[in-house]
Amino acid sequence: MKVGLFIPCYIDVLYPKVGIATFTLLKKMNVDVVYPLGQTCCGQPMANAGYEHLTCGTNKNFIQQFRNFDIIVAPSGSCVLHIKQHLKGENDIEKNQALQIQKNIYELTEFLTDVLKVENLKASFPHKVGFHQSCHGQRGLHLSGMSELTACHFSKPEQLLRLVKGIELIPLEKKDECCGFGGTFCITEEAVSSKMGKDRLADHIKNDAEFITGCDMSCLMHLDGIANREKSSVKVIHIAEILNRENQDQ
Hints:
By secondary structure, the chain is of the alpha/beta class. It has two domains: 2-115, no CATH class; 128-243, Rossmann fold (3-Layer(aba) Sandwich). It has helices at 9-14, 16-28, 44-48, 56-66, 77-86, 92-103, 108-115, 135-140, 156-161, 185-188, 190-206, 217-229, 239-243; strands at 2-5, 32-34, 71-74, 105-107, 128-132, 168-169, 211-214, 235-238. The strands form two sheets. It has a four-stranded parallel beta sheet with strand order 2-1-3-4, sandwiched between helices. Strand 7, helix 12 (217-229) and strand 8 (235-238) form a beta-alpha-beta unit. It comes from Chryseobacterium phosphatilyticum. InterPro entries: Cys_rich_dom.
């Protein structure tokens, strides 16, 4: 199984340690993982803004970079969902390659639980942690059950977090409420987005979280900005960093 590591552009530029943690974690699990150096943005920002017709270049590049991998893995539910729903080829060959990529791309925790079927981790993170369910991961990729459904609750990310030594997953009053980021939504609807983020942060603070984690660094970035403005001591950390963390003193 040859795995291609897809690192979204905002992680590459702003949070490279998340990409490094993801790569390191996969190597620890003996995954034959490769990071294609020619990768760039998946095109989601343009598509979200109503300019999907301008994503031809990013689509073509994505196909070229990842067409020869058995599986593609990314530490971002948002970008994975975009590829699953919107990746397009310009000719018959590219279209077939795009379809194969869409079938074989996984968000990190989805890959760990569904493909590798991880049941043990050496990770240690002795802190109180609140898990933020990002909308794309939960409602698009079905990484977690939704509270409005009368069905058994499940959460692939939390399943992995419970394997981490010393971690205390705190309860939240609204465990799957949107943080308000929403990509371009936080720009076009700044006031609404900010209020939603403040409410999400307040839920974690009320329940004594030291850290907020999640599968999408974009949502965590939004919450981190609000926490900084409100001078809150709550920190954000991507789930890959926790699952890869072995030093109890960090």
